[in-house]
Specification:
Layout: E1 20-23, E2 28-33, E3 47-49, E4 65-66, E5 84-87, E6 89-90, E7 98-100, E8 109-110, E9 114-119, H1 128-134, H2 137-146, E10 148-149, E11 154-155, H3 158-161, E12 165-168, H4 171-210, E13 228-231, H5 232-235, E14 236-239, E15 251-254, E16 258-261, H6 273-276, E17 280-282, E18 287-289, H7 293-296, E19 299-300, E20 305-307, E21 312-316, H8 322-328, H9 332-339, E22 343-345, E23 348-350, H10 353-357, E24 360-363, H11 366-403
Parallel strand pairs: 3-8
Antiparallel strand pairs: 1-12, 2-9, 3-4, 5-7, 5-9, 6-11, 10-11, 13-24, 14-21, 15-16, 17-20, 18-19, 18-21, 22-23
């Protein structure tokens, strides 16, 4: 049976019939741009909501802007709970974003790149339904057709926005859809908060472990021996094996996953057969000092391959639990110490083995290294599991948005 254009693919059983299709101007009762205000990042005057604070369906306050102190403003530009904000000017990719203001701040204004839209009584009063409708793939695609400008600077003017045709059901079905999707969003928010708490807990636990504020016990409940401190060159050595035929996969450093195959990193550097001969062999379990180690710590490799001679490959001299050092060499305080050993080169900064080797680092007994690594790895698995749950929920929501709207 052919799907009718004005009936959604997924629907609550108590509803039937076609959805209404009308130009959006027919359901707008008022639309008003905010004020053209000067703004600062200094927290003195009133907060000002700008285009960067509008996400896809939600307000983002990672970065805040403020009116200069004692600056005059129009009281009509004060945001009220439930206000629907439309981003009129942004990049071509982002113009047309919408979000509902839900009193994220006690008092705030909105600026001239945002259009506050009020809908008539054909749209449910919380604006949640229309917010979800504007975040469907089909509406985003339609809005881009009205954008005027370039990839980097594009605008959607009110006269063009009013041409947008939207499809919507009667109020009871709008309310049911909005309530259901809001419950999905709340579940995503709860999982996101859980992940944030786990990340904070891990960060605090790592700080206390490496500051020796948390002490682990052995299997008999006894304290482990006091930690030794050694220079990094006593634990690791610089491995420069280049004995290969050039057929091994080329590895590159990545911010999130350490050393990975270059073809998975998005790096398009072409290496000649002659230059590849100078590449160093990397084996699973090796640590790598890369050109970005002064920002993100020393990387770890799970792969067998070769890497650029610009990298320093570290192998351990002493018995170590590699999981323990994977955590320690990514620790923020260690990265700060590591960054102070950098030397300037033409294309950036570099950390030499000589400078790294002079750093004093902890060397607990091997059993305690193993116990610490197991504890922190278990936390990482919880964070990874929660991340997976969040992504599944987001993917489910994307499917719902596609199927519950027409």
């Amino acid at each position: 049976m052919k799907q009718h254009n004005n009936i959604p693919q997924l629907r609550f059983s108590e509803f039937e019939g076609e959805w209404e299709e009308r130009p959006i101007k027919n359901i707008i009762s008022d639309a008003r741009l905010g004020g053209n205000y000067r703004n600062l990042e200094i927290s003195k005057g009133l907060p000002l909501i700008k285009m960067g604070n509008i996400g896809r369906g939600k307000i983002i306050l990672d970065k805040k802007y403020f009116l200069p102190e004692n600056e005059e403003y129009n009281e009509n530009d004060i945001l009220k709970n439930g206000d629907f904000l439309f981003n009129t000017r942004n990049t071509l990719e982002l113009v047309g974003k919408v979000a509902i203001w839900q009193d994220e701040l006690p008092l705030a204004l909105y600026n001239s790149n945002l259009l506050r839209i009020t809908f008539n009584d054909e749209i449910e009063s919380t604006n949640r339904f229309i917010n979800y409708l504007f975040n469907t793939h089909s509406t985003i695609k339609s809005l881009r057709r009205f954008a005027i400008g370039t990839t980097s600077v594009a605008a959607i003017y009110s006269r063009d926005l009013y041409k947008l045709k939207v499809k919507y059901p009667y109020l009871p079905e709008q309310q049911k859809i909005a309530q259901f999707l809001t419950a999905v969003d709340k579940r995503i928010q709860l999982l996101t908060r859980k992940k944030e708490q786990l990340v904070l807990y891990k960060k605090g636990a790592m700080q206390k472990i490496f500051n020796r504020e948390i002490h682990f016990k052995d299997e008999n409940g006894k304290d482990f021996p006091e930690w030794e401190e050694k220079k990094a060159r006593e634990i690791f050595y610089n491995h420069t094996n280049k004995n290969h035929d050039g057929e091994l996969q080329i590895l590159s450093s990545s911010q999130e996953k350490g050393m990975i195959p270059r073809n998975e990193s998005g790096i398009k550097i072409q290496a000649s057969s002659k230059s590849v001969k100078s590449y160093k062999i990397v084996e699973p379990g090796d640590f790598i000092i890369s050109l970005r180690s002064f920002q993100g710590g020393i990387d770890y490799s799970d792969f067998h391959g070769i890497c650029s001679p610009a990298y320093t490959v570290l192998k351990n001299k002493l018995p170590i639990d590699k999981g323990f050092f994977k955590f320690y060499l990514k620790k923020e305080r260690f990265i700060n110490r590591l960054s102070k050993t950098t030397i300037g080169i033409r294309d950036g900064k570099q950390i030499t083995f000589e400078n790294f080797g002079g750093l004093v680092i902890p060397y607990p007994s091997l059993p305690e290294q193993q116990k610490i690594a197991q504890f922190l790895t278990a936390l990482d698995k919880k964070i990874e599991h929660t991340t997976g749950e969040i992504e599944k929920m987001k993917e489910w929501k994307r499917g719902l948005l596609q199927k519950m709207f027409v």
